[in-house]
């Protein structure tokens, strides 16, 4: 950490963690996200 902030690799890792967790949530309940493309 650099004065309270992560370095570039740290932010990339955090983004990867969010991405994989969101993907896990969607895959576990795919029927709830079936119409997500239709939202305006």
Keywords:
single chain, 0% strand, 40 residues, mainly alpha, elongated
Query: What is the 3D shape?
Result: elongated
Mean pLDDT across all amino acids: 88
Largest sheet: none
Uncertain segments are none
Helix content: 40-55%
Task: Supply the helix-strand structural class.
Answer: mainly alpha
Rg from alpha-carbon coordinates: 15 Å
Number of strands: 0
Helix and strand succession?
H
Write the layout of secondary structure elements.
Blueprint: H1 8-28
What's the short story on this structure?
The protein has one helix at 8-28. The protein is mainly α and 40 residues long.
Structure, described:
With 40 residues, the chain is mainly alpha-helical. The protein has a domain at 1-27. It is built from one helix and no strands. It has one helix at residues 8-28. The chain is elongated, with a radius of gyration of 15 Å. 0% of the residues are buried.
């Amino acid at each position: 950490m650099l004065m309270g902030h992560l370095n570039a690799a740290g932010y990339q890792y955090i983004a990867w963690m969010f991405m994989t967790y969101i993907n896990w949530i969607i895959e576990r309940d795919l029927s709830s996200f079936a119409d997500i493309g239709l939202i305006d």
